Amino acid sequence: MKRVVQIAGRWPLVTAVLGFACAGAKLHGPPGPADYPRTQPEVTSYRETSSYIDVRKFLDSLRVLGAPLAFGSVGKTSEGRDIPYVVASRPLVSTPAAAKALGRPIVYVQGNIHAGEVEGKEALLALLRDLTFSPAPNVLDSIVLIAVPIYNADGNERFAPQAVNRREQNGPESVGTRANAQNLDLNRDYVKAEAPETRASLAMFNAWDPDVFVDLHTTDGSFHGYALTYSPSLSPAAVFGGVYARDSLLPLLRERVRTRDGFEIFDYGNFISDEPGLVRDTTVHEAWATYDSRPRFGTNYYGIRGRIAILSEAFSHDSLARRIASTRAFVSEILSLVAEKGVAIRSLSARADSLPLAWGRSPDSLQMVAIRSEIVATPRMMDVLKEDLEKTADSSLTQPGVPRGERRTGRVHTVRMPVYDRFISTLDRTPPAAYVVAPQDTGVVRLLRLHGIRVDRSDSAWTARGEGYVIDSIITSPRQFQGHHEIRLMGRWQRGIQSLAPRSFIVSTAQPLGALAVYLLEPESDDGFTTWNLFDRDLKKGGRFPVTRIFDLSRRGRSANRRSSASSAQPQ
Ligand SMILES: [Zn+2]
Fold first, then answer.
1. Can you give the pLDDT at residue 91?
2. Alpha-carbon distance 431 to 310, whole Å?
3. How far apart are alpha carbons 258 and 185 in whole angstroms?
4. Number of C-beta neighbours around residue 559 at 10 A
5. Centroid of ligand 1 to alpha carbon of 512 (angstroms)
6. From the CA of 90, how far away is ligand 1's center (Å)?
7. Do 371 and 428 contact (CB within 8 A), yes or no?
8. How far apart are alpha carbons 56 and 88 in whole angstroms?
9. CA of residue 178 to ligand 1 center, whole Å
């Protein structure tokens, strides 16, 4: 039904945008609301979602109307599409340095990472338009907003019936796919960064260093009674933004969205009767449980970078119009709250950056980094909203996304049940002064730099006090996942004087992303480079892990003009 738009070749962003401009409406006098662009759902009575071209046209219209916005490209998808981003603030800034100089929180909101989950894209476009053209004071006076409405642009263009691409969703009729054009799930790619979209977005994170990252999705199933569910970073390593979002921001957001916007929202989860296995305790028959804490998921990852991250999941059984409305309300309230708490949020970011710097100077300041975790064993008892379904007489479909032979009743009731909404650490590691990576592991070093982690290099052979990891066993997952068989190591650290090869790479943990470096490099991490096969070639039972922990960097051999740093952390 939906037209499939093919875009040939690689377009320079500006010409593409201006090309549409010329084809657009001619203006007579200053633009007014009648000239403002409308999203595809708005012009089709919510029957259709925007194609890539629709998004580009919409953004182009904003530009032609003189909206005070800065337009750019995050990077290119594997099929060569530019991923557009828009910066909105008053006064307008268009570079990371200018944004920093404003001294305000920077909020990065991303739609469409799973391209069948369309309302984030639409809500973000409409919100951008309305905030920008509003003459009254608004959040753009207090924050810098970076909007990325169509992150998985290639997936968006793989339109197919919703019954095929998003079975559990109540429309629209034609939507894109969850995966990108390489069949990678971008929301499992944040550690290994194999997709060009991920590599480009890591470069955006490094350049703009947003204080808050918001990722917009749609739920997959449970018939709960919430218009939207949300989650902070669930990684216990997210000791700054993760804890602050969970304990301070999200409870307040829940209250505001309920009272000001009229939507019930709650911590993300599913009923374990729908998804067995979420909780270990087999004596629990019904509970509400969250998903996963590993940084392959964007919001978990972003928390380990020391920042605030919020996952938004609109209720898949609501209509598209209502999903757009609830997502828009949630994002609006996030922006308002961040604007209000700007000073606290900026100082949280500053503390997250400075804490690892102190690690090198004073061992007392060392903070353990949680590298493995499990869902909490002691849930809280809470009231959760649940909707009743009832059987129909036959197996006809009553609503897209509702199982055949069942219908929704609209009867939502409160059930008191255990709520598992957080993870606890099961393995903590004290950051060493540095990790030393073997000279041949250049792929690992490239990926560390892509994550924004500074890597130095030693010129000569040297020795230092430290630890090497002896591998006792290598557990390879039999299941293929995202093209990988994940690895888990068991072994032990052995302390002693370590001999380091000339040209080995040095990753100091005394840098703003020190905790992330620990998470990615520790051999026993539940979602590090070892997990994703980056060290496979060096792993041998009884052998030594190719990364060494060093306690003291003062004696290392290094040249005056050593290579370093975040400046080389751009996509290759
Ligand atoms: Zn999703």
1. 97
2. 27
3. 32
4. 11
5. 29
6. 32
7. yes
8. 17
9. 7
Residue-level pLDDT at 363: 67
Instruction: Report DSSP letters for 52-110, one per residue.
Output: HHHHHHHHHHHHHTT-SEEEEEEEE-TTS-EEEEEEE-SS---SHHHHHHHT--EEEEE
Which tokens sit at 526?
A: 């539940």
Report the relative pairing of strands 82-88 and 69-76 from DSSP bridges.
Answer: antiparallel
DSSP-derived letter for residue 560 is T
Half-sphere exposure of 215 (CA within 13 A, CB side): 24
Cα separation, 110 vs 114, whole angstroms:
11
Using CA atoms, how far apart are residues 379 and 329, in angstroms rounded to an integer? 29
- Residue 174 is predicted with a pLDDT of 97
Q: What angle do CA 123, 388, 325 make, to 5 degrees?
A: 10
Please state, in angstroms and as integers, the Cα–Cα distance from residue 132 to each residue in 83, 126, 145, 300, 540, following that order.
Answer: 21, 10, 11, 30, 57
- Please state, as a whole number, how many other Cβ atoms lie within 10 Å of the Cβ of residue 1: 10
Q: How far apart are CA 572 and CA 569, in angstroms?
A: 9
Is residue 112 within 8 A of residue 156, CB to CB? The reply is: yes
Residue 283's Cβ-side half-sphere holds a number of Cα atoms within 13 Å equal to 1
Question: How far, CA to CA in Å, does 448 sit from each of 297, 431, 492, 518, 521?
Answer: 17, 16, 24, 11, 9
Q: Ligand 1 centroid vs 125 CA: distance in angstroms? A: 18
Report d(CA 375, CA 291) in Å as an integer: 9
Q: What's the distance, CA 396 to chain centroid?
A: 38
pTM over 0.85: yes
Q: What is the pLDDT of residue 484?
A: 98
Positive or negative, the CA dihedral 186, 191, 192, 197 is positive
CA of 29 to the centre of ligand 1 (A): 43
**Those residues with Cβ within 8 angstroms of residue 73's Cβ, 6 or more apart along the chain or in another chain:** 13, 82, 83, 84, 85
Q: Identify the helix (H) or strand (E) that includes residue 466.
A: strand 462-476
Regions of the chain with pLDDT less than 50? 1-25, 558-572
Q: What tokens were used for 338?
A: 């961040």
Q: Which two tokens stand for residue 488?
A: 């888990």
Question: Do the beta carbons of residue 402 and residue 389 sit within 8 Å?
Answer: yes
Task: Determine the distance separating the centroid of ligand 1 and the alpha carbon of 509, expressed in angstroms.
Answer: 33
Distance 47 CA to ligand 1 centre (A): 20
User: Residue 506 Cα, ligand 1 centroid: separation in angstroms?
Assistant: 37
Q: How are beta strands 308-314 and 212-218 bridged, if at all?
A: parallel
**In which residue are the tokens 């979420």 written?**
278
CA 349, CA 513: separation in Å to the nearest integer? 11
Which of 244, 223, 354, 222 has the alpha carbon at shortest distance from 310?
Answer: 244
What residue spans of 189-245 are helical by DSSP H? 196-208, 241-244
* Calpha distance 449→467 (Å, rounded): 24
Q: Are 177 and 73 in contact (CB under 8 A)?
A: no
CA-based Rg of the chain, rounded to a whole angstrom? 24
In this prediction, residue 555 carries a pLDDT of 65
Helix or strand run (H / E) with residue 265 = strand 265-267
Q: Which two tokens stand for residue 55?
A: 């998004």
Point out which residues pair with 80 in neighbouring strands. none
Distance 475 CA to ligand 1 centre (A): 29
